[in-house]
Task: inverse folding
């Protein structure tokens, strides 16, 4: 096959890669998008955000049919057809796969399926089904993403030990499931399996689940886990894991005791590692840090002037929307532009029950960095809308600069917090002040009012909450 | 944190500091021009790699600086942390304020009675510590960055000091006023490459309103050329004298002697012959080989004839200098000229090889064109432009008409020290030299 010449090649068709390819094509560049998987969309679409959210939607429904007995509506226990559930989940993925592929076609982006490997700073070798295909490029964008980290001692070669990828395949619903790691992936998938009927034990090495998030935002999630999981063990450690017939024997150290237990499946969710090896980076000037993430500058440019890196593989918070933003920065740079050298504001959402979301500065970070802030909180117990949903386990809080009264950050936990955080992102990005949020009219009765009411508590005159301390100031 | 000399580009490892655009205690933003460095390629503007407040400056004008060498130390990253320092420096009304510029070289404006950098200390705080961008919309932050303006130096009119479009507009208006006031008492500086003749900042025009466009940043070498051309064009009263020379005989001589030169490994070009003739003319009219020392109010006559030859390269105009043209044989000159032109095109020419010229020739003959008005290469006082030689019908001395090779000649001279009569005499002599080129000069 003759080498293909292109202006831009994008390696990896996840939410970073395809966004970059489409954006570059929209600016008139000849673009080739390379994806080793048969399907486009990357982890997010095939093995991450999308399938997990489909399953979490089902979890919510199951939980609500149970909770509804409090309102006088009683359902029988759910009949779960795992095959049908899986088919539905997969059909969403297929729809999106096809969508991305047809958008690529419409944009004139050529898609090559195969593993890409850098031969030098201008050449990619792609191992396609039809043989080797060389691509000569002017600029390359690496968007190869990350994969679930697997501890060597846990890797038994036994399919019952799963990462998020296998857990989302939904082979069956194990009676006893051990989740190792209480980060957002462990918590989300633990929630899915618990509501589908598994008895879930969660083991976390740190002293809290969702480490890094503000404790008051984590509390309602921990409370949910207490109810939904058989057990949540903090400061616990898995010492040993071995196959034992159709089960996995696990030795766990917790509270100074060694527990030996049998599980039908184990989910290892201890983080993600970059896919930066085996793509020929040693043949380029791209630099890696000691954890394997590619080093990039504010324009997402690597040590190699021809090569950019975006998304998970470029380090930082591993979120799809961060990758998409970086895709834009990289493409603008290769078009001759320059990124504004400033921190990018990226919202984070954890789709637990209830959802946790934040943007900008967190209270935890402010404490750690000794930044003086004021915090205005509005607990959802005082929200009419939260009461009608019977979900008062929520909190909205604003992190405020005491001098300028600028909103530095917003944190929230509660039903639908993931959607609610959108307004907060705009406020932080635009440099809004508490007064701005307090003066904007919010529709009643909605959960969005909690943002306005939190702003009002800062001035001590929230309609629905009386705060003596604020009023006294 | 230290700001060091970044990589300069292919082959360049060092340079000499021409000017320093920052002072200790100044606030700098990433991308702002901090110094100008001259090396064999050109004068290059060096941007800051970081944002912060300038600590001790480790270098001075005239220092040789190598890649990686410390330029100055920088305290704290956040741009607004440096604002109080900038505000302090504007307290004295006569003191100039530096306006941060990332895209263009720094312009200095005299302080307004209304201080421009306001005391923003009260508005610096937790947002910076949290690493958040300044309180302004992302669109405005982008615009300010593109304009090379640090939003932290603008007082925002909205709650909490949030900066909005009208604040930026007000700031720009004040800059423009201050700049035009500063330009009124312009003093022509004879040494610094950055002086008051820097044109006032021009507003960008949105050409995309009328159709599709594309943009390309002005390369540093192009910026240097642009700045020098403006300086030369503005500070020298140019007059350009046009003439023509019949070089038919000269061409025949060249043809005749070409094989002899080739046998000695040299290619004799028309330019070499003209160069020789120009050197002879300059010896007869030393004022065209002189310079004006404005500071001393003296005319400096040079006893040497060093002629700069303008060379058209991919990167732009370069002018290597041929030394002692009057004292060299045509064989020597033709070899040297070839070497220098090749070096210039390969960008291997050193700064030293482009310095010290006393006269310049710009020969466009190989490309085409007739008369043109070349701009004098200061501190020289004259430049000769040569067009394309063409076959013309000429009335000869015996009133017959013959086809002759005619070379268009354009001589620009500095009217401050050269009068029209002198220029006409020079022109006549030059034509004579071209038309009656002596065979003894070419004989080897």
Result:
């Amino acid at each position: 096959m003759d080498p293909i010449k292109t202006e831009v090649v994008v390696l990896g068709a996840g939410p970073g890669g395809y966004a970059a390819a489409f954006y570059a094509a929209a600016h008139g560049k000849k673009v080739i998008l390379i994806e080793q998987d048969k399907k486009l969309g990357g982890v997010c679409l095939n093995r991450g955000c999308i399938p997990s959210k489909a399953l979490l939607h089902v979890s919510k429904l199951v939980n609500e049919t149970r909770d509804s007995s409090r309102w006088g509506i009683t359902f029988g226990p759910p009949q779960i057809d795992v095959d049908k559930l899986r088919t539905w989940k997969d059909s969403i993925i297929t729809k999106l796969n096809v969508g991305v592929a047809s958008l690529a076609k419409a944009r004139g982006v050529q898609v090559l399926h195969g593993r890409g490997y850098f031969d030098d700073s201008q050449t990619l070798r792609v191992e396609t089904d039809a043989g080797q295909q060389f691509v000569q490029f002017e600029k390359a964008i690496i968007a190869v993403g990350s994969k679930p980290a697997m501890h060597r001692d846990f890797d038994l070669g036994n399919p019952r030990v799963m990462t998020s990828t296998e857990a989302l395949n939904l082979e069956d619903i194990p009676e006893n499931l051990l989740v190792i790691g209480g980060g957002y992936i462990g918590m989300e998938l633990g929630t899915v399996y618990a509501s589908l009927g598994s008895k879930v034990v969660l083991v976390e090495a740190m002293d809290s689940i969702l480490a890094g998030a503000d404790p008051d935002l984590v509390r309602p999630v921990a409370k949910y886990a207490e109810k939904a999981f058989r057990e949540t063990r903090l400061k616990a450690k898995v010492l040993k894991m071995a196959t034992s017939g159709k089960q996995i024997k696990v030795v766990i150290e917790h509270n100074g005791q060694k527990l030996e237990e049998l599980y039908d499946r184990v989910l290892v969710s201890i983080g993600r590692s970059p896919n930066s090896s085996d793509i020929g980076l040693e043949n380029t000037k791209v630099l890696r840090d000691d954890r394997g993430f590619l080093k990039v500058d504010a324009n997402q440019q690597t040590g190699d002037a021809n090569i950019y890196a975006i998304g998970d593989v470029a380090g930082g918070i591993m979120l799809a929307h961060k990758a998409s933003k970086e895709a834009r920065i990289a493409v603008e740079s290769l078009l001759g532009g320059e990124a504004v050298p400033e921190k990018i504001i990226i919202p984070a959402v954890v789709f637990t029950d209830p959802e946790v979301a934040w943007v900008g500065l967190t209270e935890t970070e402010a404490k750690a960095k000794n930044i003086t802030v004021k915090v205005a909180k509005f607990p959802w117990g005082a929200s009419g809308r939260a009461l009608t949903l019977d979900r008062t386990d929520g909190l909205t809080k604003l992190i405020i600069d005491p001098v300028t009264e600028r909103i530095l950050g917003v944190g929230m936990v509660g039903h639908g917090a993931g959607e609610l955080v959108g307004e907060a992102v705009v406020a932080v990005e635009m440099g809004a002040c508490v007064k701005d949020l307090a003066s904007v009219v919010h529709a009643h009765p909605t959960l969005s009012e909690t943002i306005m009411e939190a702003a009002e508590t800062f001035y001590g005159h929230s309609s629905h909450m009386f705060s003596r301390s604020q009023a006294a100031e | 944190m230290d700001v060091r000399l970044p990589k300069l580009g292919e082959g360049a490892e060092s340079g000499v500091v021409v000017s320093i655009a920052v002072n200790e205690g100044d606030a700098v933003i990433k991308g702002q021009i901090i110094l100008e460095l001259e090396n064999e390629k050109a004068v290059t503007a060096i941007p800051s790699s970081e944002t912060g407040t300038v600590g001790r400056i480790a270098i001075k004008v005239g220092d040789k600086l190598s890649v990686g060498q410390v330029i100055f130390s920088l305290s704290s990253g956040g741009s607004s942390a440096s604002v109080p320092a900038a505000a302090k420096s504007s307290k004295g009304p006569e003191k100039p304020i530096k306006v941060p510029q990332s895209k263009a070289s720094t312009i200095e404006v005299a302080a307004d009675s209304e201080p421009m950098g306001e005391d923003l200390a009260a508005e610096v705080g937790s947002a910076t510590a949290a690493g958040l961008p300044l309180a302004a919309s992302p669109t405005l932050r982008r615009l300010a960055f593109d304009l090379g303006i640090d939003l932290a130096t603008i007082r925002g009119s909205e709650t909490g000091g949030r900066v909005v479009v009208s604040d930026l507009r007000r700031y720009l208006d004040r800059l423009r006023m201050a700049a035009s006031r500063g330009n009124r008492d312009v003093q022509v500086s004879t040494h610094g490459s950055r002086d008051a003749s820097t044109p006032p900042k021009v507003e960008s025009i949105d050409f995309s309103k009328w159709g599709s466009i594309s943009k390309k940043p002005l390369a540093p070498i192009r910026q240097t050329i642009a700045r020098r051309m403006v300086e030369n064009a503005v500070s020298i009263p140019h007059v350009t004298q046009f003439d023509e020379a019949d070089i038919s005989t000269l061409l025949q001589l060249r043809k005749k002697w070409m094989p002899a030169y080739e046998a000695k490994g040299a290619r004799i070009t028309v330019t070499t012959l003209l160069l020789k003739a120009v050197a002879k003319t300059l010896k007869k009219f030393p004022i065209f080989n002189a310079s004006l020392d404005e500071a001393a109010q003296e005319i400096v006559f040079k006893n040497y004839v060093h002629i700069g030859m303008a060379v058209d390269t991919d990167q732009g105009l370069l002018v290597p200098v041929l030394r002692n043209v009057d004292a060299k044989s045509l064989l020597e000159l033709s070899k040297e000229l070839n070497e220098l032109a090749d070096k210039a095109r390969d960008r291997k020419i050193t700064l030293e090889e482009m310095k010290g010229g006393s006269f310049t020739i710009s020969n466009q003959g190989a490309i085409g064109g007739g008369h043109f008005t070349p701009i004098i290469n200061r501190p020289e006082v004259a430049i000769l432009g040569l067009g394309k030689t063409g076959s013309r019908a000429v009335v000869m001395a015996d009133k017959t008409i013959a086809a002759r090779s005619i070379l268009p000649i354009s001589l620009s001279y500095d009217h401050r020290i050269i009068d029209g009569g002198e220029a006409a005499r020079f022109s006549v002599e030059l034509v004579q030299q071209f038309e009656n080129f002596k065979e003894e000069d070419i004989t080897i």
Q: What stands out?
A: Chain B touches chain A at residues 30-31, 51, 122-123, 125-127, 129-138, 141-142, 145, 158-163, 215-217 (CB under 8 Å). Residues 165-184 of chain B form the longest helix (20 residues).
